[in-house]
Each structure stands twice: as structure tokens, then as C-alpha cells.
Amino acid sequence: MKPLRVTAAALTAVLFAAGCSGTSNDDQAQANPAPTDGTLTVGLLGDIGQPPDPDIYYANNGLAIVLNTYEGLVQYEDNVDTVKIAPRLATTWEVSADKKVYTFHLREGVKFHDGTAFTSAAVKTSLQRRTDVKGGAAYMTAGVQSVDTTDPATAVVTLKEGNAAFLDYLASPFGPKMISPDALAKNKGSDNAQTYLTTHDIGSGPYELSAVQTGTKYSLTQFAGYWGTKSPFTKVELPVYNDSSALELAFDKGDVSAIVAALPSSDLKKYESSGAVDSYLLPTLQSALVTLNPSGTFFKTAEARLAFLQSLDREKLIPQVLGNRSEVATTLYAKGMIPGGADKQEINYKPEVLKAYAATLPAGSTMTIGYATGNPNAQQLATIVAAQMATLNIKATAQGYPTAQVFDWVNDPAKGPDAFFDGNNGPDGGNPYMWGHVFWDKSGGINYFGCDDPAVDADLDKAVLTGDNDLFVAAATKYAAAGCYLNFSYNKDWVVTQKWLTGVAESHNIGANELNFAKLGIKS
Amino acid sequence: MIGFLTRRTGAAIIVLLVLTGAVFVLQQYSPGDPVKAYLGANASPAAVAAERVSLHLDDPLLSRYWHYLTQAIRGDLGISFRTHRPVVTDLGAFLPATVELVVVAFLFALLLGALFATIRTLAGTLVRGILLVGATAPPFLLALGGIILFYAHLGWLPATGRGGDGFLLAHSLVTGDWAVFGAGLQHVVLPAFVLAVAPAVSIGRILRASLQQTLGADHVRTARAKGLTEAAVFGRHVLRNSIGPGLSMAGLQLGFMFAGVVVVEQIFSWPGIGNYLAESIPAADYPAIAGVTVVLGAVYIVTNTVVDMIQALADPRIAL
Description:
The structure holds two protein chains of two kinds.
Chain A (H helix, E strand, L loop, with lengths): L1 H19 L18 E7 L17 H7 L4 E3 L8 E3 L2 E6 L5 E6 L13 H14 L10 E5 L5 E6 L6 H6 L9 H7 L19 E7 L3 E6 L12 E7 L2 H10 L4 E3 L7 H5 L4 E16 L9 H9 L3 H9 L3 E3 L22 H9 L6 E7 L3 H15 L4 E7 L1 H4 L12 E7 L6 H9 L13 H13 L2 H13 L3 E14 L2 E2 L18 E2 L2
Parallel strand pairs in A: 1-10, 1-11, 14-15, 14-16
Antiparallel strand pairs in A: 2-3, 4-5, 5-7, 6-7, 8-9, 9-10, 11-17, 12-16, 12-17, 13-17, 18-19
Chain B lengths: L1 H28 L4 H6 L5 H10 L6 H13 L13 H32 L3 H15 L2 H15 L14 H8 L2 H38 L2 H8 L4 H38 L5 H8 L5 H29 L6
Helix pairs in contact in B: 1-13, 5-6, 5-9, 5-11, 5-13, 6-9, 7-9, 8-9, 9-11, 10-11, 11-12, 11-13, 12-13
């Protein structure tokens, strides 16, 4: 046995040494060379989850595929830190004073991947399919009454009632994308082409979906008939990595060209300080959020909720956990959603408020602070805050919950934790209604604990008819007073790329947390 | 033999009914709303409620289970809430990757287990040392260590993926596509080794103990006394009498390997059913979870049946 033990010990030492020496910055001092075969490789962390069908896909990981194969009428302007609608397949547009009629003048010379010319008929087909498929973002076209296609170069969309957010619906990365009416008719089947679009695309974007290996890799090929700028990348590969360490190793080795919003913030310093790669922090509408559960025992009263929110030292927590990619949120909506920042968030760090409140609590009071499993930033925040509660004699526990469970709380909020830390979340688009409705309205999608004020919902519903910012601010202020919610931090998209990749900031916009591959290039 | 197979088939049906029934009961009582995975995180409660009705999720448990069973008999295991594809299609896409990984890992485990048990030189000590270190390390650590060493440092092996889809190795072997076969082998070596290490030690230990016991038996001493060579003694009189416990353990380990691929497939981004299961669980994608459960249950039962048959062939004293 003796030689065996000695061998085992020696091998352990060798493996340990190999592991420890794995990823030092010294190894990366040399920048990796640019590809010579015209292939851009963008690593995905985990599979995209849903099919890359623009009327089905309602998650983040696979947006790059949807947004590079399809185009909408409008988009958010690239490379600016504000919410500004920019042309895409519509070059100009007019909106009626009552926000009911939207007239789009369409770009000429646009062809879909099947060769069909883009006309107003495609607009009608695309909006109709969105409604028919009944996906998660079908609400965006639910208000469409008719689409006038008399002029092939002009689409006139009439809504059932005024909606100041409609342009934002169209500019949203999840908004309706234009699809070829001919290709849809040809491949419609019995499910409105849903099966067909799991492995094909019928869009007009700069790339075509050329291969799908669910869970393994997605491949895009440059569309020769694209109307806009073309990049030197004739092929884009999106391999799936299920482990962030494996993804990082592939990036460090140069096998992956870029990683978009996939790595944990704890890696930020490593790549920001590396001279061998480029690190970008790009503007988004995303935030870290704290939501409190009024159905639990601890946060039954607004007094308790506001005391807790004031105990969060965001000036310290944000740099400690989220790093440079985040800053303290000072507004109730996303950064820049309300011009001039009139939606000021009045929650400041006052630990003494919770201390005084805690003194009134019975001994042994408990609190559960939740986070979504798989979100290391939220986990770290929840853990630190839970530890801080101990100093106030509150026995707090940080607990992870699977995503499906998180979204089930709204059906029975009492089953949820007392507080929930959301590391990164955001609205579908840049209109304040898209934030307020989703996070504050019980009928929105991400009001986890159903903390609702009908007066707030009414204000939001009224404000969206006309785009009245004062009313949006009033709704936000009213909701904030309930203490169910804190806009914890403004988050940025963290993109790491090989040194040779250019056009990164120019290919990104505040709404889409992805890159337009057509705008990327190779440093000469 | 027919009686044995009939008994095993009957048992298999009961086991699969119990397994799928357990998944449905879990689905009923586990917290989690799979419709959000189906529609997307920002979907409104109204859209979610409508889709729940459309997917029959509000129907009584027994009604849903009966519907599932009647559909399953026709080869329809439902639609995955996450991928929106039929579960059978998903399993057809992911199962070949897992089968090839497990088969290669099983061959590794048999080979390494045999080396562990039989070689008594310095090389054998080295093999046992490597395997013991590997078996004591958690699979994720071993996998990451392997990726760092063989991919990042040495550049010998790829870190993730498998270089194609379907029965890649089998197909390229049959068609003589050696380039694809070579690439497939390169991809499978590391994950298969990680998956094989612990079973190899289990098989090796049992086989080694069995061999040592047989080597001291009277009939072996007699064989040596008759002047047979050591190789003949080992081949004819030791191995055949000792292999039963090793085979039994190998069969058990093969079943465990199918269940244990989840971690290995995750780290190596191996597109198999382990990965599929790991992504389906957080999304509460119960049709997918039930589908994988059925497959794993069936594989386990078939594996054990085959092992029993091989054992009976190897040792005529064992009756089926």
C-alpha cells in the first residue's frame, strides 16, 4: 500500500498545481489573433431556452440570434445612453395626436431571406402572427385594430385606443419583427410555422439561421442580399457553454471572440485589468431590484418595508458585489426613462430606522431573503444583507429559489420569501409604462409578490394613452410610498471581446442587450 | 429464458409506471410555474392563466396522468415547455450523445477497472494512484482540472461540445469517416474519463478482491501443480471464476453512469439528456423531466437484465 499512497499523494499535488496555475493574467498577456476564416464566435452561457422564433422568444440568452436574423420597423438608437427611437425597416414615421394612428414609411430595397420584397403586406402579416401565436409578448400587438397596406411603401397601423408606448413596443428587442409573408404561407403548417421556425428563419436581418443544434451550437451565415452594412464576418458561431469557467477558458484561449452579459461580476476585475482583451460596460435599461413581500409576517407594514430598504447601504454593497457595471439607482424607473430624472427615488441609507424598528420586534424574529438560483450577484447581495440583519438580532436566512418557483409566488405570495434580490432585470422597452406595468401592476409580469395599488395601476393605464410623464411620475411616487420595491442599482451590459474586435459599442443599444454582428469588424 | 424476459418486462412496466407517477405527483405538489418558461419571464398573469388552460395544467392530476399514459403508449411524451418541441424529438436529439458518452466511459471503466485489479507492477500502482485520486475528487473538480490541463495548458483536447450530432462515433466508424471519428474521439475522451473514474475503481476493487480469493483456491493450486503456465491458470481457472462479482458491479455502475451524466454533461457542455434534464428542472419542465425519467428507468432495467444474462452465460451455476 505504501507506494500506492505515495503515488496518490504525488498525483494530487500535480493536479492541484495544474489547477492553480490555470488562469493567471500572465498567461493572457498576449492578445489572441483574429480569425482568418471570417468566423465570429460568440459564446453563450447555457442554451437559449426557447426556439429563436421572434413571436415566441421572450428570454435574453438567445436574443442575439433573433436580432441578427430579423428586423423590426424601428429600434433603439445604437451607442447612446438614452432612450431614443431610431429607424430600421421604417425610415420615417408619423404619430397622430391621439396616439392611435402610426404611419410608417418603409425602407426600399429590402429583401427577406427567401427573396420576397419587404412591403406593407409584410407589416400586416407580422403583426397578425404576433397576435395569433399568443406568445409572452403578444400584448404588444393586442391593441392593433387594422393595418392599411394600400401603399406597398407605407404601412398605416391603427390602434383600438391611443397608446404612447406603441413605438417602444416596436423598438423593443422582444417587439414584433418583420417576417416574409411568402415564407410564412409556405411553411405555415398547422402551427403558424412555429415548428419550422425552431430551425429556420424568415426574416430580413444581416444573417440567416443556417444550423441549429439545440443545447450545443447555433450558426448564422451572412445574408448576401442584406440592404445594410455588412461585416467581414461571413459566419457567426454561437456555441453553448453550460459552465462559466469553461466559457472563460475558451475565451482566454481565443476560441471565443466575445461574451455578452454572461459572466458573473466577480470576473470583472480580472478582465478589466487584462491588457490582452477588451472589456466594455454598455448602457442598458436593466437594474438590480429589491422586492418586499407584504404577505409575509415581517413586511406586513409599509413602516417595516421602508425601514428595511433604508438599511441597505447601496454605496458599499454595489461596488463590493456588482463592481463597475452598476451604480446606485436614483430614480424609480430605469435610468433616463423620465427626462430630467423627475422620478427621484427618495430611499437613502439610514440604518437607524431599521434599528429602532427592530427593537420593537419580539426576540427571535426571522426573515428570509431570496434570490434566483444561478444568479451569483443576487446570492452575494442576499447573503451579505442577511448577515447584516444578525447585528439587529434579526435571524435572516439567504435562500435560493429556482426561476419557476420565483414566478409562482404571485399565485400565493405567502409562499415566497420576505425579500427578494433580483440581480438583473428590466423592462421590454424604454417607455415608462413598460417598467411600471411590469414591476408594479399585479397584472404585469414581474410583480413577484403581487404588491399592488389600484390607484397606481389606474395612473399607469391613463398615462400610457397620452404619454403623460407627470402622471407616470405620480404613479411611481405613489408606488414607492408602499415600500414594496427598490430600484437598487442601474446595471450595464458587460461585454468582453478579443482585442481585434471593433465596433462593439456601435453595435449595441440601450434596449437590446446584444450586439448587431453586422456592425462589428476586425482591427487592421 | 422466455420466463425470465417476461418477468423482467412485467417488472419494467411497473417500475416505469411508478416513476412517471412519481413525477406527476411531484409536479402537483412542487412549487413552480412552468408556464413562465413556456411564455417567457415578462409574460403577464393573464397570458400565463390562458396558457395553463391550453396546456391542460389545471386539469385534475389523475386526468393528466391518464392522458399522459395514453399518449405515451402512442409514442407521444408531450411538448417540452422550454424548447416547445415534442419531448420525443428532444430525446431523439440528446439521447445519442449520452449513449455514446456512457458507452465510451463504460469501456474506459472496464479497461481501467481491469488494470486496477490485475496489474501488479509499478505501472499498476501508478494506474491505481491516478484512479484513486480521480475517484476521491468531486466530478466537477476533476472535469475542470482536466479542462485546464488538457485544453487550456496542453491544447490536446477540446473543452466542450462533441463535434457533431446523432450517433457521431458509431456512424463515422461504420461509414469510415475517420476525420469525424477522430474529432469525435477527441471530444469524448475527457468527459468519458471523468465519468469512468469512480466506476473503474468500484469495478477494480471488487474484481481485485475476487481474483485474490480465487487465486488462493484449491483448484488453482491444483492447476499450478499440474504444470500449467501462469497465464493459462489465470485465463482458464481464475478469471472465469472471479468475473461474476466484477460483472455485477459493472452492470450496476453502467446504470449509475446514465444517472450520473448530469454533472459531467453540464461542465463539458455535452449535448445529452443529462444537460437536457439539468436545464429542464429549474424551469419545471415536467414533460421533459418525465421523458428523461422514463428513458433512464428503461435503460437501468435493460442494463440489469443484460448483465444478468451475461452473468448466466459466464457462470452456468447462475440460473435465470
